[in-house]
Amino acid sequence: MTLRVFNTQTRKLEPFRPQHDRKVAMYVCGPTVYNYIHIGNARVFVFFDVVRRYLRYKGYDVTYVQNFTDVDDRLIESAKRENTTVKELAERYIRAYFDDMDALGVQRADVHPKATEHIPEMQEAILTLIDKGYAYEREGDVYYRALRKEDYGKLSGQSVEELNAGARVEVNEKKETPLDFALWKKAKPGEISWESPWGRGRPGWHIECSAMSRKYLGDTLDVHAGGMDLCFPHHENEIAQSEAWTEKPYVRYWLHNGYINMGNEKMSKSLGNVVRVHELREQYAPRALRYFLLSAHYRNPISFSHEAIRQIEGSLERFDTAVTNLHHRMGAAQEGEAEPEVRERLASLTGEFEAAMDDDLNTANGISVLHEAVKFANETVARSVVPKGSLAMLLDWIHRFGGEILGLVTAGEEDSLAGEIEALIEERQQARAARDFKRADAIRDRLAAQGIILEDTPQGVRWRRK
């Protein structure tokens, strides 16, 4: 089945065909690093982490770039409040971002460019836009002539009148029209700034992504992604300036994920209902947060609730238990190839998983298939005789699709305390055989204190973590 994705620009499901056969140039807008990221930010990074993983599973060579906006008004204001420098503030929250994303299982991008390290590339772009008549300088500021680009508004699908009516336009007498946007901002006293042909200043927000994406991925990107809130004005402005600069199409497929709601309201800083990832990590397993962010189709809104996360932790426990049971049975199983019925069922589940993901990257349905696989694994383990080949094939399927693609299943067999736990279980078994039940109970209590639960099964004692 061919992968199809919903292209925001065309508003249609389209077959995914990158410009260079099996190579994919993918750019995802990263955070503005003036604070800890919230759960809405995390939805972008978790979902497109899965997109990259799935594209690689499909055989594509993906180059993945995700930037850091490490200079803008919010960083400048926050640095003043905290009596520190913009650079120190940005570095602190970049470290915090990686702490959060590492916990959520988000793999690092191939390149994480910072805006402040690409000032020459941005100035080159601005100079070209001025030379071509797409930009103009006013008293140290440089603005892009939005209406010079005849198809301005094509991403958001709005007319100039609608854009003017809906835009949050700052009153600025320097602009030729209200929709014009800043490419370069004149420095105010004491602000971080760089020398430029227009005097000391700093870049506008939109130009950084055009400059950095071109440097690392070329003139035309296969995939450009981010939250729906970036569609206008950020991505609209990126298209305008990049296509005027290079005279080539900027992006083949625009992908945007939906919002997170807090109850009946959209999560937003203005409403004061923002939930930070580093706070949630103190309450819940990070994998539960990842599961939650993938549990609805990416273009749909998703409602956050603590009850939903608690229920998800139960699902993850079922995944972990299934993996533990498979490993337990593997240890005592007889050698033998995978049974035909196991091969057939897993082949069917593979088809179902790929069908879900090929239909506009539907992780929610992909997770449903993972649950079916776990259910089948439990049914198989419960049989009295199962050859090692069947167990190994089940483990491989769950790790490939639940772990390597969705990032929801851990390896399971690599437990640094596994040897000690197994030794204590064996000691407990010997104590029970000797009818030393006091000693056996003491060992069980010791393991329980470490979060280890023992279960007596017809195939022997198995253990799992709480």
UniProtKB/TrEMBL annotation:
<keyword id="KW-0862">Zinc</keyword>
<dbReference type="Pfam" id="PF23493">
    <property type="entry name" value="CysS_C"/>
</dbReference>
<keyword id="KW-0436">Ligase</keyword>
<feature type="short sequence motif" description="'KMSKS' region">
    <location>
        <begin position="266"/>
        <end position="270"/>
    </location>
</feature>
<protein>
    <recommendedName>
        <fullName>Cysteine--tRNA ligase</fullName>
        <ecNumber>6.1.1.16</ecNumber>
    </recommendedName>
</protein>
<feature type="binding site">
    <location>
        <position position="209"/>
    </location>
    <ligand>
        <name>Zn(2+)</name>
    </ligand>
</feature>
<dbReference type="InterPro" id="IPR032678">
    <property type="entry name" value="tRNA-synt_1_cat_dom"/>
</dbReference>
<dbReference type="InterPro" id="IPR014729">
    <property type="entry name" value="Rossmann-like_a/b/a_fold"/>
</dbReference>
<feature type="binding site">
    <location>
        <position position="269"/>
    </location>
    <ligand>
        <name>ATP</name>
    </ligand>
</feature>
<dbReference type="InterPro" id="IPR009080">
    <property type="entry name" value="tRNAsynth_Ia_anticodon-bd"/>
</dbReference>
<dbReference type="InterPro" id="IPR024909">
    <property type="entry name" value="Cys-tRNA/MSH_ligase"/>
</dbReference>
<dbReference type="Pfam" id="PF09190">
    <property type="entry name" value="DALR_2"/>
</dbReference>
<feature type="binding site">
    <location>
        <position position="29"/>
    </location>
    <ligand>
        <name>Zn(2+)</name>
    </ligand>
</feature>
<feature type="domain" description="Cysteinyl-tRNA synthetase class Ia DALR">
    <location>
        <begin position="352"/>
        <end position="417"/>
    </location>
</feature>
<dbReference type="InterPro" id="IPR015273">
    <property type="entry name" value="Cys-tRNA-synt_Ia_DALR"/>
</dbReference>
<keyword id="KW-0479">Metal-binding</keyword>
<dbReference type="Pfam" id="PF01406">
    <property type="entry name" value="tRNA-synt_1e"/>
</dbReference>
<feature type="binding site">
    <location>
        <position position="234"/>
    </location>
    <ligand>
        <name>Zn(2+)</name>
    </ligand>
</feature>
<keyword id="KW-0175">Coiled coil</keyword>
<dbReference type="GO" id="GO:0004817">
    <property type="term" value="F:cysteine-tRNA ligase activity"/>
</dbReference>
<dbReference type="GO" id="GO:0006423">
    <property type="term" value="P:cysteinyl-tRNA aminoacylation"/>
</dbReference>
<keyword id="KW-0030">Aminoacyl-tRNA synthetase</keyword>
<dbReference type="GO" id="GO:0005524">
    <property type="term" value="F:ATP binding"/>
</dbReference>
<keyword id="KW-0963">Cytoplasm</keyword>
<dbReference type="GO" id="GO:0005829">
    <property type="term" value="C:cytosol"/>
</dbReference>
<dbReference type="GO" id="GO:0008270">
    <property type="term" value="F:zinc ion binding"/>
</dbReference>
<keyword id="KW-0648">Protein biosynthesis</keyword>
<feature type="short sequence motif" description="'HIGH' region">
    <location>
        <begin position="31"/>
        <end position="41"/>
    </location>
</feature>
<feature type="binding site">
    <location>
        <position position="238"/>
    </location>
    <ligand>
        <name>Zn(2+)</name>
    </ligand>
</feature>
<comment type="similarity">
    <text>Belongs to the class-I aminoacyl-tRNA synthetase family.</text>
</comment>
<dbReference type="InterPro" id="IPR056411">
    <property type="entry name" value="CysS_C"/>
</dbReference>
<feature type="coiled-coil region">
    <location>
        <begin position="414"/>
        <end position="441"/>
    </location>
</feature>
<comment type="subunit">
    <text>Monomer.</text>
</comment>
<dbReference type="InterPro" id="IPR015803">
    <property type="entry name" value="Cys-tRNA-ligase"/>
</dbReference>
<keyword id="KW-0067">ATP-binding</keyword>
<keyword id="KW-0547">Nucleotide-binding</keyword>
